[in-house]
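Could you join me in thinking about how sequence relates to backbone shape in a protein? To get us started, please write out a protein record for me. Would you write everything just below, so we can both look at the same thing?
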Amino acid sequence: MKDVMDELAAARRVMGAATLPAGDAYTMELRRRYNAPVEDVWNAITDPVRLGRWLKPVTGDLRPGGSFELDGGEHGEILRCDPPRRLRVSWLFGPEADEWPGTSEVEVRLSPDPAGGTEFELVHAAAVGEPMFPTYGPGAGGVGWDLHLLALAQFLADGAPLDHDEFRTLPEGREFARRSAAAWGEAHLAAGGDPDQVAAAAEATTAFYVPGGDRDQHTPGS
């Protein structure tokens, strides 16, 4: 469990602001280091076979201007691709989202570090008016990204995929999600969120990702 929690602690989380084609947006920003060269990380986030091993199976026309769809329903267009440093896509979920283009984008930026690893930055911008935010705050997407970046860390380390559905049922998976929700609450508070709203959003996010409450809660640091 310590290794899993170390991966959670390896990321820095910031809630910020941006402007999308649809207007003002908030951002969920994750920054961390991977002990793998930039070219390997770039390949893991762009090669459809490798992408399906840590994120979700993907189909589509995977080139700038093309479109993609993940097995979970997330879809969009490839807006920018600068190998091996920057990838930006629109990010929509569900058929109704297509009625509001320009409301959500994800950008990944990679840079090499002196030790031969990769500084990884993911920025997910979502329109201020999107319906999940009032209930869940940045944890609506932030916890999911934490889980995916954990899967990417494992995949880069040994090539093994992480079964997200199984992991979320395990005690360490539930604790990981619980601490991730709390960490995004801290980022929300640091960005000036109302303390009562932040607390309610973190609680709602925890209840979504950790159904059943605290029956299996662990002591922090365990």
